[in-house]
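Team,

Forwarding the record for the chain on the shared tracking sheet. I've put the sequence and predicted structure together so nobody has to dig through attachments.
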Amino acid sequence: MDGIKQWYQSKAVWGGVIAIIASLVQLMGYHISQDLQGDLADQAVTLAGAIGGLVAIWGRIAATHGIGGK
């Protein structure tokens, strides 16, 4: 691994979360295919990245201190 990313940017994490949810949904009598689970994981990573960007922008706007070096 070359870089470090946030947990919410990991397809493995989202895939695991979606697999857990899919299992719980199946207990209620519904079925979510493996292909749909993969698509949901991809969409979750994309959405998490967009939300992370929005939070970063909001954080910069709401910040009370400037950015700069020494």
